[in-house]
Structures are given as structure tokens and as C-alpha cells.
């Protein structure tokens, strides 16, 4: 972590000690905690809208407005479909036709993100952080320009500038790509699709496949590899794929889309295997790009990588000593809790007198498919690659007790990866009901260096 030692600079008068561009989870956390340490803080964010663009966004950012929160609301909604099917074998006499009101759920989702948007604004206000609505751009190492909705430009000087602008969905270069939507639009569709095509094999693709299938749509999922969820444990990827198929998702491995054509009957989708099918909605879930294009970074000398992600050191400082960056815009580990951690470490380091590096080891993450997949630590493949000695793998596959009555053919799988020499658990994963909550507890054990023997000696019920 570099420090500014220039006396003239230290004695200069600034409008703010810190100005934050981007009021998502990371930016809000950094602003609040910096203010708590006594800093004078300003922050800017684009005006609120559920679907983002270069000129609209909202306090709360991707997670709150068009990410984790609305997605999980839809996952919960879709989960009831399977619950109702299972309930019949538990003695519940349900009518054959149970209606689902998409617009009602959509309104509930919108109400919730508006509530959270206001809570985030209140958190900033209560912390004494000054909020500006508009697009932020860096003019110099110590100056930010905020362009308001009416085009008015306001300039503020700051001893330190923090970039926390996140990322946005990207579209592949496919003919007719303007006919497709991204996850932004998918969370705010006016009508529930009857036929959905999804391109992508990551967690967003898998989650929307579960959501729309759970709500009764026909879903076709196309992805380039043999299995979805690249980067996760291969065995667990296979389990997740089987579960998607078992729930009725049509899987198309090693297949890409080549063209989308608008017709009277919907969108005609062509694949590189010569297939054609019709869809009401085509979702591109093909990754996200850092939001850096309009920040004027080149002009002030902030280094970025080939994807546009801002390069930072261990303390989130950029190549310009007065400019810092956290969250998805740095493309380190793109998870909301990680952005929160980075924001906390930044505030402690710069204003709290406690130099603190973010710790990326043993961070649990989850795919909110139905049922969900969750992991912490190393996958089997990563452990074998990184270990100097032998790696032991323990897997348990079982039929959850509730499925013995409901007769749902869907096994839960749990897995531990262990260092043979030390007996230390290197990684854990689970695919099945409540996996994210279970992995959160196991993450604490891994942080504490738990061994397989300690896992074995724990009495469970």
C-alpha cells in the first residue's frame, strides 16, 4: 500500500476526504465505514431503475436491485412448484390445476428492491455520507465530475477516490443478438415466457433455468462444455446437471447459438449443430464485464487489464496512489460478500489506522439452482493440482428423507477433500436442499483449520 507523503498535497484543501463512485454493496460499505472513522465522504450513483444502463442504476447496486435479492425471490417462488408436487404424497389434497400469478410475484419483487434501495440511502444518510445522483467520472487524481440527469456537471475535489462501479452483463456477437435479453431484463419481464432458451453454463444460466422451469416454462439450456458450472468441482457439476434434467430442463452441452430471427411465432433460434427451435425469450447469460469504459481512467493513468478490470494491489490501491477500487470492477472474486469485505478492509486501511488485506481463502459460494449447489475451499481438481502430497476424497450420496415419501428421484451429494498428510479438510461441497446454509457453517470449520477426524468426531442429529 502506497502512501501520499507530499506535504503540499497533504495540506491541500479538498471538498471530501473520500469520494466514492458507485453506491452498490461495496461502495456503500466503504463509504459508511470511512465516515465512521471520521472521514468526510461523498458518493455518487446513477438514478434508480431495475434494468441498468450507462445512465441508470440505483443505490444498492446489482445485488440489491438486479442480482442476488430479486433472483432469490424468484427462486423461492419457483421452488413452490416442486414443493406442491411433493406435498401430494404427504397427504395434501391439492387441485390438479394450481394457478401461478407471475405479475403478483413481480410486484412483490419490485416492492422489496424499492424498500432496500431506500434502506441503503438511509444508511448513507445516517452515516453522514453525502449522496449525489448522477454519473461519476474521474477528471484528475483528486477530482470527480458528476453529470446529473439534466446534463448539469458538478465537480468535487477529494483526497482519495474509490471506484466501486461493479460490472454489467455482456452479450456475445451472434446475429440477431438484439432480440435476446440479459439477467437485468429477465428479472423484470412483464410476461412469464412459455418457451425459454438460455445461452451460458455459469451460475446465472443455471439459476434462471431452474426459475423458469419451476414456473412451468419449457427451458432449453445451451452451453459450450460437457457440463455446466465451469470452475466448480467436476463431480458436483455432474450432480447439478442431472438435477436440472430431472426437473425437466432440456440440456444442450457442447452447443452454441449462431443466429436469432424474429418471426410471428416468436424468436427462431439456430445452433451450430444445425438445430432450430422457437422461443418466447432468449437469455444471454454469458458473463459480465467491469464497468470502466466511461470513467476516464486512461486520461488519469489508472491501469486496467485486457477485460477492462482495474488493476489493484493487496490493499485495493490502483496505479494512481489517490485512486482505489473494490468489488466486481476489479474482477478479483465477484461476490457481494467479498465486495463488502473489500470495502471494510479499505476503510480500515485508509482511515482506521489498521492496514488490512482482504482474505480470499475459504470463501463459501452458492449456485441457487433448485436444489442448490454450494462449495467452500478447494475442489477435488484444485486440491490435486495444488497439493504436494496425496489428497483423499470422501463422498456421500443419499436420498433425502423427505424424498422417500414424496418419491422424488433426486439425491443429495456431499463431498470432503482432505490433505492425506495433515488430515486437514481442504474443501467441501454439497448439492441438495439447504446446501448454502450448511456450507456457511462448514466454512467456519475450514477457517479454523478443521481436520477430517474432527468432522468425524462431531455428533450430529
TrEMBL record:
Record: residues binding FAD: 72, 136, 165-167, 328
- Gene Ontology biological-process annotations: cell redox homeostasis; cellular response to oxidative stress; glutathione metabolic process
Q: According to the UniProt record, which cysteines are disulfide-bonded?
A: 63-68
User: Source organism's superkingdom?
Assistant: Eukaryota
Query: Is this entry keyworded Oxidoreductase?
Result: yes
What family does this chain come from, according to its entry? Belongs to the class-I pyridine nucleotide-disulfide oxidoreductase family.
Q: How does it assemble?
A: Homodimer.
What is this protein for, i.e. what is its function? Answer: Catalyzes the reduction of glutathione disulfide (GSSG) to reduced glutathione (GSH).
Name of the molecule in the record = Glutathione reductase
- Organismal lineage: Eukaryota, Viridiplantae, Streptophyta, Embryophyta, Tracheophyta
Amino acid at each position: 500500500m502506497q502512501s501520499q507523503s507530499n506535504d503540499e498535497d497533504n495540506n491541500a484543501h479538498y471538498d471530501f476526504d473520500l469520494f466514492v463512485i458507485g453506491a452498490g454493496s461495496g461502495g456503500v460499505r466503504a463509504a459508511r465505514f470511512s465516515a465512521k472513522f471520521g472521514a468526510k465522504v461523498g458518493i455518487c450513483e446513477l438514478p434508480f431503475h431495475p434494468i441498468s444502463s450507462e445512465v441508470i442504476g440505483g443505490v444498492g447496486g446489482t445485488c440489491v436491485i438486479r442480482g442476488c435479492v430479486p433472483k432469490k425471490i424468484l427462486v423461492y417462488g419457483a421452488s413452490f412448484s416442486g414443493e406442491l408436487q411433493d406435498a401430494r404424497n404427504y397427504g395434501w389434497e391439492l387441485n390438479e390445476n394450481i394457478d401461478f400469478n407471475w405479475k403478483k410475484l413481480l410486484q412483490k419483487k419490485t416492492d422489496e428492491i424499492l424498500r432496500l434501495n431506500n434502506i441503503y440511502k438511509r444508511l448513507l444518510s445516517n452515516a453522514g455520507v453525502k449522496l449525489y445522483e448522477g454519473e461519476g467520472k474521474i477528471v484528475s487524481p483528486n477530482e470527480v465530475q458528476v453529470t446529473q440527469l439534466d446534463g448539469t456537471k458538478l465537480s468535487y475535489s477529494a483526497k482519495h477516490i474509490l471506484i466501486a462501479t461493479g460490472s454489467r452483463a455482456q452479450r456475445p456477437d451472434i446475429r440477431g443478438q438484439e432480440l435476446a435479453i440479459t439477467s437485468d431484463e429477465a428479472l423484470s419481464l412483464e410476461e412469464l415466457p412459455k418457451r425459454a432458451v438460455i445461452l451460458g453454463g455459469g451460475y446465472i444460466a443455471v439459476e434462471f433455468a431452474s426459475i423458469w422451469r419451476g414456473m412451468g416454462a419449457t427451458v432449453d439450456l445451451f452451453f459450450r462444455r460437457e457440463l455446466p458450472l465451469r470452475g466448480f468441482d467436476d463431480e458436483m457439476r455432474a450432480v447439478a446437471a442431472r438435477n436440472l434434467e430431472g426437473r425437466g430442463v432440456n440440456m444442450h452441452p457442447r452447443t452454441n447459438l449462431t443466429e436469432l430471427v424474429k418471426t410471428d411465432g416468436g424468436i427462431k433460434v439456430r445452433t451450430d449443430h444445425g438445430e432450430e427451435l422457437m422461443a418466447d425469450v432468449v437469455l444471454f447469460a454469458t458473463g459480465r464485464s467491469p464497468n470502466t469504459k466511461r470513467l476516464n481512467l486512461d486520461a488519469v493513468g489508472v491501469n486496467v487489464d485486457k477485460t477492462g478490470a482495474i488493476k489493484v494491489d493487496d490493499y485495493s490501491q490502483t496505479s494512481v496512489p489517490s485512486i482505489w477500487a473494490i468489488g466486481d470492477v476489479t474482477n478479483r472474486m465477484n461476490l457481494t460478500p467479498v465486495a463488502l469485505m473489500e470495502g471494510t478492509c479499505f476503510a480500515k486501511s485508509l482511515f482506521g489506522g489498521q492496514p488490512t488485506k482482504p482474505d480470499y481463502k475459504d470463501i463459501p459460494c452458492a449456485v441457487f439452482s433448485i436444489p442448490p449447489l454450494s462449495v467452500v475451499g478447494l475442489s477435488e481438481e484444485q486440491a490435486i493440482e495444488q497439493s504436494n502430497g496425496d489428497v483423499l476424497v470422501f463422498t456421500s450420496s443419499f436420498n433425502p428423507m423427505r424424498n422417500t415419501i414424496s418419491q422424488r428421484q433426486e439425491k443429495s451429494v456431499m463431498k470432503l477433500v482432505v490433505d492425506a498428510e495433515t488430515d486437514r479438510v481442504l474443501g467441501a461441497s454439497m448439492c441438495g436442499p439447504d446446501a448454502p446454509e450448511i456450507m456457511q457453517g462448514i466454512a467456519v470449520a475450514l477457517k479454523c483449520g478443521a481436520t477430517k477426524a474432527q468432522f468425524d468426531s462431531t455428533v450430529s442429529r
